[in-house]
TrEMBL record:
<dbReference type="GO" id="GO:0020037">
    <property type="term" value="F:heme binding"/>
</dbReference>
<keyword id="KW-0479">Metal-binding</keyword>
<dbReference type="GO" id="GO:0005506">
    <property type="term" value="F:iron ion binding"/>
</dbReference>
<dbReference type="InterPro" id="IPR002401">
    <property type="entry name" value="Cyt_P450_E_grp-I"/>
</dbReference>
<keyword id="KW-0560">Oxidoreductase</keyword>
<dbReference type="GO" id="GO:0016020">
    <property type="term" value="C:membrane"/>
</dbReference>
<dbReference type="InterPro" id="IPR001128">
    <property type="entry name" value="Cyt_P450"/>
</dbReference>
<dbReference type="Pfam" id="PF00067">
    <property type="entry name" value="p450"/>
</dbReference>
<keyword id="KW-0812">Transmembrane</keyword>
<keyword id="KW-0472">Membrane</keyword>
<comment type="similarity">
    <text>Belongs to the cytochrome P450 family.</text>
</comment>
<protein>
    <recommendedName>
        <fullName>Cytochrome P450</fullName>
    </recommendedName>
</protein>
<dbReference type="InterPro" id="IPR036396">
    <property type="entry name" value="Cyt_P450_sf"/>
</dbReference>
<dbReference type="InterPro" id="IPR050665">
    <property type="entry name" value="Cytochrome_P450_Monooxygen"/>
</dbReference>
<keyword id="KW-1133">Transmembrane helix</keyword>
<dbReference type="GO" id="GO:0004497">
    <property type="term" value="F:monooxygenase activity"/>
</dbReference>
<keyword id="KW-0408">Iron</keyword>
Amino acid sequence: MNRFIVDNCKNIYLAGYETTAVSAIWCLMLLASNQEWQDRVREDVLQVCKGQSPDANMLRKMKSVCRLPHLYMPFGVGPRACLGQNLAMVELKILLALLLSNFSFSLSPKYRHSPALRLVIEPGNGVHLLVRKLSTSALP
């Protein structure tokens, strides 16, 4: 019985942390590799949030952040879909909104694309990003 409890705790931890963290890493890598997408999402975030921390109403208004919601389905579908998918998506949207409203990202020359199949498909060597703080004068 103790083994069962420990295994379930590990499952809940990994499912609730690892998958969301890896999804955030992939999002940042894709935005860093495509400046046009990054600028479009940042513009959407800045226009909706207007310098405030994002809330649920703001997240619903962000069109670029949620443009094609059914294109990437990391949580599965149907009766066995992840129970925490709504929380995970809110976490990801808030994280991206906060980061993109304050920083600009580009890929480091050190980055080597090497997806690795572990619990989920994750960057085998991590994602090396160059992070630049946005000046307040550069923001609309």
